[in-house]
Amino acid sequence: MSRNPVIQGSYDMNVLREPVLRALIHDLNLSEGSHGLDNACGIGLQAIMLAEEVGSNGYVTGLDISMEILDTGRKIIDDAGLSDRVYLRQGDIAALPFENKTFDWALSIDGVGYGPGNTLHYLGEMKRVVRSGGMIAVTAWSSEKLLPGYPELEARLGATSPGIAPFISGKDPALHLSRTLGQLRKLGLTETAAKTYAGSVFAPLDETSRRALVSLFEMRWPNVESELSQRDIDEFKRLCSPDSRDFILNIPEYYAFFTYTAFRGTKP
Question: What pTM value is reported for the model?
Fold first, then answer.
């Protein structure tokens, strides 16, 4: 398994994400035989779902900036027997390396909308490379409740700099991820819509789900101690450390949920 934390986290988290993303992708109603762009594709797990959705005559092009991630993705796609229908390419989401009107649709999952970059510009690039009548969609992690019984601690963790991700402190409110509908409309897209999908997990946890949740804790709240009181630090370590006797995943009534939100529009 890769030592790259992004790659490892993508592997581990897939058991939680896949059912939600499959439902979301199905609702996009991608045309059989269409050719689409998976923008910021990561290790290609969602590209496989997209390829299955568009059928044996369809194609998916995945784009990511990291060659290490793309190399991992190519192996995953080859192992899935889809290397003839899924092509991964290196490139920057801020300057897509494709001609105008190349694709029937363009989608970004956990990519566009994250971080401090200009989301409106990224969406404009997606619009540029999609044909008239094609769909543009952005999908992002939008909320979670992972610490049942400890709402105050979870609220304080959520208010830390890492804890608000994928939202960004200080970003222009008009460019905030949760206001993507306005950005799509500003670009002239029609039939704009948003829908939120929920995933859940509960005890007893199998080893795969447990590993995924441990990875999720690490991804959601890295290096938060400097922004917490000593009391909250002690409680956080007690509840969220796998080697703690009181690790929250050990409680027999453990339950958690998370949401993904999809924003979409049609290019006139």
Answer: 0.93
Structure-token pair, residue 151: 């709402």
Q: Mean pLDDT across the stretch 232-246?
A: 97
Q: ∠ CA 56-62-68 to the nearest 5 degrees? A: 125
- H helices present in 28-102, as ranges: 45-54, 67-79
Query: What is the span of the domain harbouring residue 102?
Result: 5-141+166-200+257-266
The answer to whether residue 216 is domain-embedded is: no
Tens digits of residue pLDDT in 39-93: 999 999 999 999 999 999 999 999 999 999 999 999 999 999 999 999 999 999 9
Domain count, the chain: 1
**54-89 as b/e: b if 16+ CB within 10 A:** beeebbbbbbbebeebbebbbebbeebebeebbebe
Residue 225 counted as domain residue: no
Q: 144-180 burial, b if ≥16 CB within 10 A, otherwise e?
A: bebbbebeebbebbbebeebebebbeeeeeebebeeb
Tell me the two tokens of residue 41.
């594709």
Map tokens 């959601």 to a residue: 220
Question: Look-up: residue for tokens 């005559």?
Answer: 57
Q: Each residue of 141-191: pLDDT tens digit?
A: 999 999 999 999 999 999 998 898 777 778 888 888 899 999 999 999 999
Identity at 177, one-letter amino acid code: L
